[in-house]
Specification:
Layout (H helix, E strand, L loop, with lengths): L6 H24 L6 H26 L2 H31 L7 H29 L3 H17 L14 H9 L12 E4 L2 E4 L2 H24 L5 H12 L2 H8 L2 H4 L3 H22 L20 H36 L1
Antiparallel strand pairs: 1-2
Helix pairs in contact: 2-3, 2-9, 3-7, 3-8, 3-11, 3-12, 4-7, 4-8, 5-11, 11-12
Length: 337
């Protein structure tokens, strides 16, 4: 890591970002509503613009293009994985029949849970990387396996949201839960007795989903940068604006049929990059007699950024083209009938 991020900048940046996130949260709880397409678009544009401004400020503060480049590559990687998260959120909202008016609050709570979990995993990952150089081998193999699972999930997987988790089944069995929602409340009164609302099941399901995605995403971004600050801020920016993106994309998510292939390619690419990085730092005695492997290619941040953008662009364009052709075919068949 050929740059230094001043501590004062890290503190100020995190404080400002937390304040923005808190303000966003207060707005939601003060006025629960279904955002219009225009409102959602403006918020998504705001958060995307904020991320690009942050990258520019990072460039000016560190005087290093590497820091800004690593942030942008990490942010795009986490953003693509977060979009994949939206598929699961859509399934969960339908599975638990969450009223659309309160879906913003559910999404925001899910985002906060995700930030907390990813913060914990980032700290653990930083400690492992600092003390165990061979952990990059583990991360690399894990990401390649995750990529395979992402590309070929199996007929019964469906992004893991069709079946309720064991925790949710446990709650249904041993905790009194009402049949109906009471706004966004977790507790309600039925027959003079205080019981939980189905909202508790939604939060538990989303929390478990966030845990699974954190396990997948943190090794991926550590393959781009080893700076815990950049790792966390990239995750933060990827999650900020995610709820607005949920409402903006709406039915478009179902049309992105090849998105998981693009994400799988990115994960596999970063997994291979991590493996090469591990070879460069190799200290395992049974590999090259414990010596560094000099012939392993060193993939630059700019090359990683290009691969990430290309993979997501190809997957998105291919999905939209396929959906358009399918609609045209359906319209043609309908006209013939």
């Amino acid at each position: 890591m050929g740059y230094d991020i001043p501590v004062w900048f890290q503190i100020v940046a995190l404080a400002v970002l937390v304040l923005i996130l808190a303000a966003d949260l207060l707005i939601i709880f003060a006025r629960p509503h279904i955002p219009s397409t225009r409102e959602a678009s403006l918020w998504v544009a705001f958060y995307v613009g904020l991320a690009l401004v942050f990258a520019l400020v990072l460039l000016l503060v560190t005087g290093s293009g590497d820091a800004a480049g690593e942030f942008v590559a990490g942010w795009l990687t986490e953003y693509s994985l977060s979009v994949d998260n939206l598929f699961v959120f859509v399934l969960l909202m339908g599975q638990f029949a969450v009223p659309r008016k309160y879906q913003q609050e559910v999404l925001m709570v899910g985002i906060i849970i995700a930030l907390v979990l990813r913060g914990i995993f980032i700290m653990l990952g930083a400690v492992l990387i600092e003390n165990l150089s061979w952990i990059f081998y583990v991360f690399g193999v894990f990401l390649v396996y995750t990529a395979w699972r992402q590309a070929f999930p199996g007929a019964d997987d469906d992004h893991g949201a069709q079946k309720e988790t064991g925790i949710v089944r446990f709650l249904r069995r041993f905790v009194d839960i009402s049949d109906h929602y009471d706004g966004s409340k977790l507790r309600t009164t039925v027959g003079g007795r205080r019981i939980w609302t189905p909202m508790i099941l939604v939060f538990v399901a989303i929390g478990f989903t966030d845990l699974v995605f954190a396990i997948d995403s943190i090794p991926a971004i550590f393959g781009i940068t080893q700076s815990p600050f950049i790792v966390f801020t990239a995750n933060l920016f990827a999650l900020m604006g995610l709820r607005q993106l949920y409402f903006l994309l709406g039915g478009l998510l179902e049309q992105l049929r090849y998105l998981h292939y693009g994400i799988a390619f990115i994960l596999a690419f970063i997994g291979v990059k991590l493996f090469f990085h591990a070879l460069h730092q190799n200290e395992l005695p049974f590999i090259n007699n414990g010596e560094h492997v000099e012939w392993a290619p060193d993939i630059s941040t700019m090359a990683s950024l290009a691969v990430i953008v290309a993979a997501m662009s190809v997957a998105t364009i291919a999905s939209l083209v396929a959906s358009r052709r399918e609609r045209a075919r359906a319209d043609s068949e309908h006209a013939e009938d």
